[in-house]
Amino acid sequence: MGNGVKEGSVRLREDAEAVLPSPVSSKRDHRQVLSSLLSGALAGALAKTAVAPLDRTKIIFQVSSKRFSAKEAFRLLYFTYLNEGFLSLWRGNSATMVRVVPYAAIQFSAHEEYKRILGRYYGFRGEALPPWPRLLAGALAGTTAASLTYPLDLVRARMAVTPKEMYSNIFHVFIRISREEGLKTLYHGFTPTVLGVIPYAGLSFFTYETLKSLHREYSGRRQPYPFERMVFGACAGLIGQSASYPLDVVRRRMQTAGVTGHQHGSIMSTLRTIVREEGAVRGLYKGLSMNWLKGPIAVGISFTTFDLMQILLRRLQS
């Protein structure tokens, strides 16, 4: 009987130790989260800075009724450079960094956590997730990041489409919007943003992770080369942005309504206005060819930087 009690207590203690997270495991989890946050922040900053002039040009066309063409886009870039100087091509990039750094850090970190949670749920610990959970992890990561950083996205859009005399800095944008339009304006266009982020982030992460998985399966190499990661990221950006682009146009119109003379409206009323005034394809896909140029570059840089930073940090930690 004594032995039975002793064996029972030993087994109970072992079970408890298995359930309770060890300090080493907890510390490792914290390191992984911090590593993901740092890698994501750097990835987002590098990617957005690289394509900032193209991004600003795209936003200006999205929120105006002018017809888009590659010739007109590059003419706008050229005259902006002549009239306002070379650095004006990066106008609004400081606001972009304020938004992108936390956005990318949260998105990449959340994606790693959602992959871990879904992998544990579906029994794929330490292995590539199956397709549907892979898509879900990306969509949830994008939604989480967009929800937490949306006002910064609105501020960045306002700075991109207005002359520098109107808003002197990021804080000035917040102050003027709060005074003249009300605090709720800071979340104007949030619904189309989330509706656009779900397919964009979902398909981007899904495509990138799928291509890496296929590469691992067919090449026999565990890790792709950096240029291969760039190609995978470019494909991911092309697919993700093409799928969600009309909602991106709608959210830009809603975000900048207060300074472009458009009426604040709902998603459907904004969609109807764009289609009625500019046509379904020309209006809702305005600037998409610019996105096909900048999107794959930005997403390729972003995914590649994140992966390489993760590898470097893991080596430094070990």
TrEMBL record:
This protein's GO CC annotations: mitochondrial inner membrane
Primary location class: mitochondrion
Keyword terms, alphabetized: Membrane, Mitochondrion, Mitochondrion inner membrane, Repeat, Transmembrane, Transmembrane helix, Transport
Membrane topology: Multi-pass membrane protein
Substrates-to-products reaction catalysed: dADP(in) + ADP(out) = dADP(out) + ADP(in); ADP(out) + CoA(in) = ADP(in) + CoA(out); ADP(in) + ATP(out) = ADP(out) + ATP(in); 3'-dephospho-CoA(in) + ADP(out) = 3'-dephospho-CoA(out) + ADP(in)
Swiss-Prot/TrEMBL Solcar repeat ranges: 31-117, 129-214, 224-312
Superkingdom as given in the UniProt entry: Eukaryota
Claim: Translocase is one of the keywords in the record: no
Record's subcellular location: Mitochondrion inner membrane
Keyword Acyltransferase included in the entry's annotation: no
GO molecular function, one term: AMP transmembrane transporter activity
Entry's family note: Belongs to the mitochondrial carrier (TC 2.A.29) family.
Protein purpose: Mitochondrial carrier mediating the transport of coenzyme A (CoA) in mitochondria in exchange for intramitochondrial (deoxy)adenine nucleotides and adenosine 3',5'-diphosphate.
Protein name stated in the entry: Mitochondrial coenzyme A transporter SLC25A42
Gene: SLC25A42
